[in-house]
Amino acid sequence: MEKLSDELKAKMESVEYNYAVIEENISEAAEKSGRKRDDIIFLAATKTVSSEVINHAVGCGLKYIGENRVQELLSKYDEYDLSRCDLQFIGHLQTNKVRQIIDKVSLIQSVGGEKLAREIARQAKAHNKIMDVLIEVNIGREENKSGVMPEQLEELLYNASQIDGICVKGLMAIPPICTEKSQICKYFENMHRIFIDISSKTIDNISMDYLSMGMSDDYSEAIECGANMVRVGSALFGKRIYK
Ligand SMILES: *Cc1c(COP(=O)(O)O)cnc(C)c1O
């Protein structure tokens, strides 16, 4: 028992330290790109992290958390400190699982097709709500990745704008793994260009409030390229331990 609590204490301290470092980096990157700290949303990707540790980060000031597995979200749901933070879904979502999270999250970040959009809308309406979503773009055109291909984005947005029960609030992307920073920046810049282009089109019922991209290794670069939401996991919580 003694050992465990020491371990947990060390974990909490490292989360506090990491949180401060990330905050500092976000401020710096925001400034570099002509914005303020408050223009950027810092969302913590909380997969594999215990609710105790998540809530400790919330105590540090963290306001947004994102889960990417339905089962895990449900198992931790009663323990999140949701009076102080906002819970989102950021992972791949199967249509048959939408029902389980529709009343639990404020935003579903990972909508890559019309079928999923329609199911979210259907479930949202059953709960008398409108679900905010982001459209996930497969910016690296990777075969085994979810998200809409860039050239099909506009059509999906027009179709989504007609669906009652959802409201598109922006775009999200997970670029391919890159060894060079300059490489990943190309994807971020490309996403930002698309984001600006869509914003200028003013499609009914669609707003481009959020551009969600950038993770632990590259959130500063993402912000400098125009992201206003970053999803950071291991840089905050340490290396993930999968059970
Ligand atoms: C896990 C995860 C992240 C964060 O990954 P890190 O590299 O640990 O920061 C971001 N986005 C999604 C969708 C994730 O599943």
CATH topology: TIM Barrel
The appropriate CATH architecture is Alpha-Beta Barrel
Structural class: alpha/beta
Largest sheet: 8 strands, parallel
CATH superfamily: Alanine racemase
Sequence stretches where pLDDT stays below 50 over 5 or more residues = none
CATH class group? Alpha Beta
**Overall 3D form:** globular
Record field, number of beta strands: 8
N- and C-termini, Cα separation: 21 Å
The domain count comes to 1
Write the layout of secondary structure elements.
Elements: H1 2-32, E1 41-45, H2 51-60, E2 64-67, H3 70-76, E3 86-89, H4 98-101, E4 107-111, H5 114-126, E5 131-137, H6 153-161, E6 166-173, H7 181-201, E7 206-212, H8 219-224, E8 229-232, H9 234-237
Parallel strand pairs: 1-2, 1-8, 2-3, 3-4, 4-5, 5-6, 6-7
Helix pairs in contact: 1-2
The structure holds pyridoxal-5'-phosphate (PLP).
Name a few traits of the molecule.
TIM Barrel, eight-stranded parallel β-sheet, 9 helices, binds pyridoxal-5'-phosphate
Question: Short description, anyone?
Answer:
The chain has 243 residues and is of the alpha/beta class. It has helices spanning 2-32, 51-60, 70-76, 98-101, 114-126, 153-161, 181-201, 219-224, 234-237; strands spanning 41-45, 64-67, 86-89, 107-111, 131-137, 166-173, 206-212, 229-232. Strands 7-6-5-4-3-2-1-8 form an 8-stranded parallel sheet.
Describe this structure in words.
The protein is α/β, with parallel strands linked by helices and 243 residues long. It has a single domain (2-237), classed as TIM Barrel (Alpha-Beta Barrel), CATH 3.20.20.10. Helices cover 43% and strands 18% of the residues. It has helices at residues 2-32, 51-60, 70-76, 98-101, 114-126, 153-161, 181-201, 219-224, 234-237; strands at residues 41-45, 64-67, 86-89, 107-111, 131-137, 166-173, 206-212, 229-232. Helix 1 (2-32) packs across helix 2. The longest helix has 31 residues, at 2-32. The model has no long low-confidence stretch (mean pLDDT 96). Residues 45, 47, 68, 90-91, 174, 215-216, 231-235 line the site of pyridoxal-5'-phosphate.
